[in-house]
Every structure is written in structure tokens, then in C-alpha cells.
Amino acid sequence: MTSSTLPLAPTTTTVVGTGENADNWPWATSTTTPATPHRDARLGFEPGEVATARRRVRSGEFPDWLDHVSAAAACTRPIRLSGQIDVKNRDGSIMHSIDTDTMPDGVIYTPCGNRRASVCPSCAEVYRRDTFQIIRAGLEGNRYGLPPLGEHIAIFLTATAPSFGPVHHRVVKTHAADCRSRERCTCRASLCRPFGKACPHGVEIRCTARHKTTDPAVGTPFCLDCYDHDGQVVWNHEAPELWRRTVQEADRELERLGKRLGVTLRRRYVKVFEFQARGVIHYHAIFRLDGYHPDCPSAIVPADRAVTRAMFASVLDTAFRKTSYTSHTHPAHGGKGWRIAWGTQGLDLKDINAPGGDDNLTKLTGYLAKYVTKSTEVTGQVFRRVDDMTVELHATPDTHLGRLIRSCWDLGIADGWQRLRRYAHQFGHGGHITTKSRGFSVNYTFKRLERTIWRRTQGFPHLWDEQEADLVVYRLGYHATGWITTGDALLANSAADAARRQADTARDYADPDPAPKVQPLAA
User: Fold this and answer.
1) For 459, left (φ over 0), alpha (ψ -120 to 50), or beta?
2) Percentages (nearest 5) of helix, strand, coil residues in the chain
3) How far apart are the first and last CA of the chain?
4) How far apart are CA 377 and CA 276, in angstroms?
């Protein structure tokens, strides 16, 4: 006979003295008393996290440590650098040197700088705000050395990819008056595909559902075997080249228009790509039309009044309709290339800085800036870079995204197509999230320099003197990634959150700030 034992593992507390023998005594009523969780657990903190945070706070160097990590306090996984910093005079002589061994933790913390909100929300927000300011400056001007641009014609357009097969989609023909967000839209959608017939594989190409925004079926093909996965990943791969050729065609059309009117015209643009639910990209872009000043060719001046918005829109529409080409040949495509062109549904064109369109300008600028922090989340999956060890985990043949990754991997084995494998996690697309033409606005380098000057002058950038500034030479190397302990992450993120709330409150009560003090030439 095996006797009952009192469990030693932490569990629900029962009446004293019964243990596991309570079920053998019918008259003994078990009184269950749930164990009271620790206060830290009730607040959502792990015991180890709180313990390491307490050790850091109780250490004598906590204030210095908190000031030391302030630049990267909100980052999820900061980069730790170690080495030496030399401060030199203008003549090159070293005034003094600083070794990171003398600093808290023996390293310098710098933000990771990742633009993806799913990886680091803080760095992604900085990237989003920089993008917003860059685009806004390129449309309004009157800052960063740019003249007022209110009289310049500007057009917002969306260029999409062609169809590669029927997919489930959500179309809202009429939005409610209070609908403000496409991601959270609850407006009544049209029927997906009410009419259709079976494909050669016996799959019914018909759907009478009114899909919601969060429906995982949106963007998935009706028949995986009918869908042209190879064609889609090749189009993603060739999209940057298609854009380059389209801009060249727009320049030629603009030159023809200028010759007819007897004026010189120049275009400048900024673009952002976004993934659709089916895993193919499309471009959002803003084109600005500038004129030409013969006495100062680098000046940014409005176009001649003989050029209208309709003319500029026609130039862009013609360029996007005319541009197409054939990609390089591939053995898997019968030794031929794929035809690369824009979708047949045409461009979606909107005027931005038309008279009385300030609200539209702000909305579209924020719309573009929002998408620079996103990756492939809209497809329902976010993948890391794929290699030989992980490709079989992701390239599942029974899913749409898995077949896209498989197409990238199989096509990328041929000469000249290796980039498909490198960017298989982005379904073949390897272009930068945002690009702009020279002269549209300032660049990200300037925005980073602006923050550096702000930190070095303790919030008084007008005191910065480039001629008197000392030269700082960083001889640093990679040490590690991330916070040393979870308690450090808790303290740093909490301090950053408090600073952010204080800044937001101060901004709400402060007077509007005029144009920034730092005024470089437009990049």
C-alpha cells in the first residue's frame, strides 16, 4: 500500500492538516484559499526583473547610469559600444581622451535605429517623425533652408502591381463620415466575389462574404495552384527598376510639355512602398513640380503659371501607363523573361497643396510617414532573413506566403537572381522603404545631426557654432546588444516614458515654435 504524501510544489493552499488525504475523509470539507500573488506580480513584473532593478537603484552610481543611458533609454535592444573617444582641436591635437571603461557599465549605449515598430517601437517612432518632418518640409517649405512652397504644384499618387490571380479582398465603396483609419475601418464592405466559376483545379472562384479588416482570408488566393507566385516575387524584385524607368519616362514627358509651353520644368518626389495583404508591394509617392531660374539654377522656384495641375497629372499618368519592360531571362521561365509593368487599374491621383487643402496635406503626409515603420505585418506574418537552415520552416507548400518564399528560394539559385534569396523574407523586394530625389527636402542625416546638436547644446541649438566646435573622434567597436539585465530595461524604459510624458505636456502648453534655427541647404 502506498501512503498519500503532502505535495511540496507550490500549489493552491488547502485546509490545514488535510493534505492529499482529504479525499479519504468524507466529513472533511476542503477549504480552498488561493495564494495571494506578490505585489510585483500583480503589477506585471517578474521577480528577477524587480530584483535586478532594485540592485541597480541601490547602487551608488544609479543617477550617473540613468543619465548615461538617456539617449537610448526607450530602445528595446540598444547597441553597446566600447573603446575610446578623442576630443581634438582644430589643429588636430588631442585635448583629452575618454575610455569607455571609466563609464557606467564600461560601454556606451546607442539606439538600435530599427525602423520597424514590431522590433523597436521607440526607434520606429523617431524614424516616423523624421519622415513626417522631411515630407512636410518638402511640401510647405519655409524651413531647413527651403523657400515657401505653397505655390508649387504637388500630386499624391498610388501605383499598384498587376494581378497574379484572384484573391479574397475587402472593398468599401462608401465609408462612414467618422471613418478615420483604414486598419480599424468597420464600414460595411461589398461582397468579396459574388460571381465566379470553378478553376481548372476544381476550386470555386466565388465568395459571398463581407470580409472584415482583420479577416485572415483577405489577400489569400482562391486557388494556390492557379496563382502566379513566381511572377509576383519577380515583380517585387524588379519594382525598383520599374520605378526608375518610370521616373525617366516622366522626365521625358515633362520635357516635351516644357518645350510646347516654352518653359523649363523639373520634378522632385518622395516615395514610400507598402505591402498589400497578398504579399506584393505598391508605391505611394508625392511629386512636386518646380520651375527653373536662369540666374540661379539651384534655386527652388514655382513652375510657370502656364502649367496647370491637370497637365502635370497627365504627364504622370502617361509615364506610368507607357513604362514596361522584360526582365532578364530565367531557366525556370522557359529561358525567357517576365513582362514588368504597373497594374491596369490606373493611378490614384490626388492634389495636395491646392488652395484650401491644408487638411489634405497633413493627412497625406502622416499617411506616408506611418508606413515607414511597417514591414510585412499586413500579410499576417513577419519573417526574419531566411537561410538554408530555416527555409524549410517557412516555405510551406500549403500556404500562400510559404509558396512565395519557396518561389524566391527556387528562382534565386540562377545566376543574376541571387537577390531573391537574400530578400525571401520580404517576398523578393529589396528596395529601401523610402527614397526621395535630390532637392525635395532635407535628408535623414540632417535630422540625426539636428538631434546631436540638440543634445550637445542641452536644448539650445542656436548656441551651436560649427567653427568653434571641437572635433570628436570615436574609436568604438561593437560590444553587445541589449540591456545587461531586464531590470535595467525596466528602469530605462520607465525613465524614457516619464520624459516623453513631460515633453508632451510641455508641448501642449507651449507656444508654437517657429521655423527651426538650424538652416542647411536642401540635400
Assistant:
1) left
2) 35, 15, 50
3) 87
4) 9
Residues 406 and 232 sit within 8 Å (Cβ to Cβ): no
Q: Where are the beta strands (DSSP E) in 337-495?
A: 339-341, 348-351, 434-436, 471-481
Please choose, from the candidates 260, 345, 246, 245, the residue with its C-alpha nearest in 3D space to the C-alpha of residue 311: 260
Is residue 288 within 8 A of residue 149, CB to CB? The reply is yes
DSSP per position, 170-234:
---SS--TT---STT--SPPPPSB-S--B-TTS-B--B-----TT-TTTT-BS-TTTS-HHHHHH
Helices then strands, each counted (H, E), the chain? 12, 11
Cell of 197: 466559376
Q: Apex CA 480: angle with CA 475 and CA 484, to 5°?
A: 125
Which amino acid is it at 171?
Answer: V
47-76 pLDDT, tens digit per residue, is 667 788 888 888 888 888 888 888 888 899
pLDDT tens figures, 432-463: 889 999 889 999 999 988 888 887 777 666 66
Instruction: Give the bridge partners for 285, in sequence order.
Output: 157, 271
Distance CA 189, CA 184 (A): 13
Beta strands in 35-151 (DSSP E): 79-88, 94-99, 108-110
What pTM value is reported for the model? 0.80
Domain coordinates of the chain in residue numbers?
A: 42-112+468-509, 147-164+228-436
Q: In degrees to the nearest 10, what's the CA dihedral of 247, 252, 258, 262?
A: 150
Q: What is the dihedral of CA 490, 496, 499, 503, to 10 degrees?
A: -140
DSSP 236: H
